[in-house]
Amino acid sequence: MPAPAPPKNHKVLGRLSLPERTFVADALRTETVGGVLLLAAAIAALIWANTPIRESYESVRDFHVGPASLGLDLSIEHWAADGLLAVFFFVAGIELKRELVAGDLKDPRAAALPVVAALCGMAVPALVYTLVGVTGGGSLAGWAVPTATDIAFALAVLAVIGTSLPGALRAFLLTLAVVDDLFAILIIAVFFTENLNFAALGGAAVGLAVFWLLLRRGVHGWYVYVPLALVIWGLMYNSGVHATVAGVAMGLMLRCTTRKDEGEQRSPGERIEHLVRPLSAGLAVPLFALFSAGVAVSGGALGDVFTRPETLGVVLGLVVGKTVGIFGGTWLTARFTRASLSDDLAWPDVFAVSSLAGIGFTVSLLIGELAFAGDKALTDEVKAAVLLGSLIAAVLSGVLLKIRNAKYRRLWEDEERDEDLSGIPDVYEQDDPAYHLRMAEIHERKAAEHRRLAEVTGGASEENDGPA
């Protein structure tokens, strides 16, 4: 009886499959544009809140609107945090569902890397914050603030510094952020829910059940789902559970697999995500940033960030905790799963992307508001710490990625090369005999053109050298 074959090693951060590469490219293109808008909104908020017209910023941000009889008489700031971010988490829910049923998280071996990296990338920053808080005698309420990664802001940084990250690193960052978002919403639901209204919570549960049943019955029409989603959101808000939980719950219910027998090219989840993602990245998240990032910043205030344990814990959690946690989780996964790093990459590349994940903007600001809701001054200081920590992480990762940018550009060009003009990158066709036949024909055609050009050039030279 032959001995069993040893388990085959797999590559960490290896080349993506063609469908996964296409999906990641489309998703990141929208997120990058949204990230630039997010960056612009954050800068606009800081300028607005630190100029002589800052009173108008506070007036707009604190202006209340909405039906009080339904418990929805909210400020613009709360509408942005509880309403618009529900759209953001709805898209995150769809992304997570797709990853679980059709993406990298479907394969337990492939899923281990982003899941372990995300968990370590949340646990270590929380530990760093707690250690700083205990040592300095500060409040431990903000332990969850530095645990989040903002994928849109991270990709905006990539767009600004012009780094051509290879697809595997970009996919790792995207998948990491999706898992990160899931755990972030679980933290919000579990740790930042105080008084529950069980009647409203029960109503939200019934609404979600109806939403799921309609999807399973194949009912179509936005006019059915949008009003139902608004009712579910309103009930969830009044239940005491953060309203963004409704968004991620509805996103997870969508079907993200195609039915080939019905001729589906894209699943319902992918179609809806394609429609809603621009709304999330281009409107919802930038507006949230506009009304959340506007904190008073001065030289003294920035100096205080490094002296107060709560704010220092946030900065160190984002800059040090995120980097160490994600890099350590990735290394441990490779070490104990018989995996090896892709031949095209080196561990410094993983370290650079890990530091990029220290940009924790959107969800970190949201958790900061929830953690210190009763202390406006401390809330603003924690927001300033989030902005400063994210800025430091962006600069650090930008420097590290720039050092290897020439290497990344070569990898990216190799991934994009399509010499036979088939519409499919050559790296995905190298095992196809038809590809080699097309390339042989192309090379022969080029050689023939060179020979004709040489003959024409040689003939012209002989004519010019002849007698006048």
Kindly describe this structure:
The chain has two domains: 10-192 and 242-416, Up-down Bundle (Na+/H+ antiporter like fold); 426-463. The strands form two sheets. It has a two-stranded parallel sheet with strand order 1-4. A two-stranded antiparallel sheet has the order 2-3. β2 (64-65) and β3 form a beta hairpin. The radius of gyration is 26 Å and the shape is globular. It is mainly α and 468 residues long. The longest helix has 33 residues, at 433-465. Helices cover 71% and strands 2% of the residues. It has helices at residues 18-49, 54-61, 76-101, 108-136, 151-161, 167-191, 198-216, 222-239, 244-253, 268-292, 299-305, 309-336, 347-356, 362-371, 376-403, 405-416, 433-465; strands spanning 10-12, 64-65, 74-75, 339-341.
Structural class given helices, strands, pairing? mainly alpha
Distance between the termini: 88 Å
Low-confidence region ranges: 1-8, 460-464
Shape: globular
Top CATH class of the largest domain: Mainly Alpha
Q: In which range does the helix fraction lie?
A: over 70%
Q: How many alpha or pi helices?
A: 17
